[in-house]
Amino acid sequence: MIFFATAAKGTEGAVRDELREHRFRGVRATRGGVAFEGPLGEGYRACLVLRTPVRVLLELSTFEAPTGDALYAGVRAIEWEHAVSTQTTIAVRATCRSSALTHSQFIALKTKDAIVDRLRDRFGERPNVDPEDPDVAVFLHLVKDEATVYVDLGGRPLHLRGYRKEAGPAPLKETLAACLVALSGWDRRADFLDPMCGSGTIAIEAAARAARLAPGLSAPPFGFTRWASFDEESRREWDAQVERARASVVPPAERPIVRASDRDPLVLAAAKVNAARAGVDVVLARQSIDKVPDPGDAWVVLNPPYGERLELDRDDAARAGRALASMRRAHRAVLAGSPAVLESIPLRPSKLLTIMNGDLECRFALYAPAR
Ligand SMILES: C[S@@+](CC[C@H](N)C(=O)[O-])C[C@H]1O[C@@H](n2cnc3c(N)ncnc32)[C@H](O)[C@@H]1O
Fold first, then answer.
1. Which residue, 24, 120, 147, 296, could crosslink 126 as a Cys pair with Cβ 3.0–4.6 Å?
2. How close is the Cα of 63 to the center of ligand 1, in Å?
């Protein structure tokens, strides 16, 4: 089977590397994500162990769809009865680019009709549509008149790990935070610090990665467990994977030290609750960044305030920039939502990446230790 791990723009390399690290097969990065291959159980495993992708999709079919009728026929030819019964709810989302069909809502509707009509023919009854919480979430991507039909194995975006109930005013998605940790190049042995931690997402993702704590262990049930095809044997396979993931967690004494600080006591309280829920140790301190003790040769990854609600004033930003520059032996990595953030850091980045944080184009600047 062919799977597709979708990635936030600019993070495809992190997703590809994580798939390789976990020994998935046939890994190849393309626009918007990374494809990989294997039996269905590999799709389950991807949902369980991967921290960086936005979603894990299972590819069902690709076919030419220059017209609505061709689209309908191609979707109707798929053996939906394996995943969908009359008791299962479905939802369809569509995207299109450079194709004769240009309305994604029309494409989604045609797709839904084809699925429903096939199942009505087979079972005499049709499944219901539930756009909010479907059992089977279908994605249709139409590019240059070629349709690809996917189902979402997770059933929801994978950043919803279940540990973060408390958040500051501008929390990062957990999956994006995991990508930053990966792209920072942290070796998972040196100490790690986020000195502007907000609700703690970056530090929690770092701690969990170093502990090899699979994100799916504490997440709500994945979509595939609600498919008609998820039978006794699938359940046994899934349970065995969960067991293996539990057995590979690194004991606390062997984990590196992960610290996080912020000047705002309210967000720190949230970070504390979130870390406990995630099952990781993060050493928290209430501190302004310019009062943080020299972290030595740690990795320092942060996402300073930007934009109207969270703007740092000029003096504050300059102080924060000087504080980062003074951490001379550290590997520093800064996700900047506005150019002003990087202008206040008196250092030249050794690497500058462009990453999408939702709709916001950000820079991720890496600063190597001073020689
Ligand atoms: C964009 S938020 C970080 C969000 C965080 N990555 C998360 O996922 O929740 C920026 C944080 O910087 C903190 N901050 C602002 N000025 C600071 C300073 N001088 N020292 C330490 N923290 C500061 C704010 O309180 C805020 O929590």
1. 120
2. 47
Closest-lying ligand 1 atom to the alpha carbon of residue 194: 6
C-alpha distances (whole Å) from 56 to each of 48, 173, 197, 273, 371 are: 10, 16, 28, 28, 41
Tens of pLDDT along 42-99?
Answer: 999 999 999 999 999 999 999 999 999 999 999 999 999 888 888 889 999 999 999 9
pLDDT in tens, 161-210: 989 887 777 789 999 999 999 999 999 999 999 999 999 999 999 999 99
140, 94 contact by CB (below 8 A): yes
Query: To the nearest whole number, what is the mean pLDDT of the chain?
Result: 94
Ligand 1 mutation pick, 165, 173, 196, 284, max ligand atoms within 8 A of CB = 196
CA 333 to ligand 1 centroid distance, Å: 15
The CATH class that applies to domain 174-211+255-367 reads: alpha beta
Domain with CATH 3.30.2130.30 in the chain: 2-152
CA distance 337 to 35: 29
Would the CB of 166 count as within 6 Å of ligand 1? Answer: no
Residue 314 φ then ψ, to 5°: -55, -45
| CB-ligand 1 contact for 316 (6 Å cutoff) | yes
User: What residue spans in the chain does CATH classification 3.40.50.150 cover?
Assistant: 174-211+255-367
> Letter for the amino acid at 321?
G
DSSP state of 184: T
pLDDT in tens, 216-270: 998 889 999 999 899 999 999 999 999 999 999 999 999 999 999 999 999 999 9
- CATH class of the domain comprising 2-152: alpha beta
| Mutational test site, ligand 1, from 180, 184, 262, max ligand atoms within 8 Å of CB | 262
Write down the pTM of the prediction: 0.95
